[in-house]
Amino acid sequence: MTKAGSLYAYDHVRMVDQRSEWDLLTWLASEEGFICYVKGQELHFEPRQEDTLPVVPVDKAALQKEFDEVSAAWRAEQEKAKVLNKAALADSDAKDAAVAAGDDAAAAAAQQAGLAKVAEATATLDRARGLYKKRYHDLNEQLSGISSAPVGGPSNVYELRWVVDDQGNPSANVRDLRLSRSLTVAKGVTVVVRSWHLKPSNRITAYYPSRGKTIQPGKASPFGNQQIYTFNRGGMDQDRANTFAQRMHREITQHEMKLRARLPADNVLTQTTLVRLTGTGTAFDQDYYVDGITRQMSLEDGYVMDISAKNHNPDSVPPL
Known about the structure:
The protein has helices at about 5-10, 20-30, 60-100, 105-145, 185, 240-255, and strands spanning about 35-40, 40-45, 155-165, 170, 175-180, 190-200, 200-210, 225-230, 255-265, 275-280, 285-300, 300-310. By secondary structure, the chain is α+β, with helices and mostly antiparallel strands. Among the domains are: about 5-45, no CATH class; about 60-145. Strands 4-3-10-11-12-9-5 form a 7-stranded mixed β-sheet. A 3-stranded mixed β-sheet has the order 7-6-8.
């Protein structure tokens, strides 16, 4: 980053603006090509995943631990209901015996006791379903959707898997999946950065990828049919302008392939996790960088999350 004193010497202006600290941090992150997020009690301000290897592994052990705890609690409630139903059967036998003996009072008491136990067993099962059933299935889906990383690859890969069985019936560990591709970006993108430097006084121009030396026949510019994005930034030297052009090119091209999905929520997926789509048999089967995560809880849908992710297509990587 440029020192404040040097930047002030080149170009400065006095202005007053009211922004929250979070708005300021996210703006600085976008300017520097960083990501800004909160994890637990920690505020993270760090380079994007494509610039450095992510250091936050997927804690599959914690997810498995929660799954085991939910399974054990659900089984315990089911066993409790079984005991109550068995006791209700015993009360039914006692009622039949009392009826045979002509003891109406004992028969009525046994019947009331049996009905009470059946009602309690039903309430226990209903309560257990509400507390554990949905979370049990959600955790099971998430555990089946997290892939083990390949040897030498990143260890925090979150897999979204699409599977079609022998009868042609599809299944997936997501509730909703939407994919899109920008054909404009797929044709190619060129970033042009123009800047000025007061010391020494000269104009700076940077291109990424590098432009052609001449205009090809039938083309209107040295960039051919590629989409041109132009940025004007002050106070940059040639190296900073080149770096900025390369970073903006990477950000723009990552909007070529977009993924949106809704699935059972967990706290495993973070901004530093790669999302990997497999099984569709299309060009969308690739890795994506997380762009946004929204988690929500409701009585109707339970605990769910909506994720958006993006990346370029490997076949669209431009030459240097």
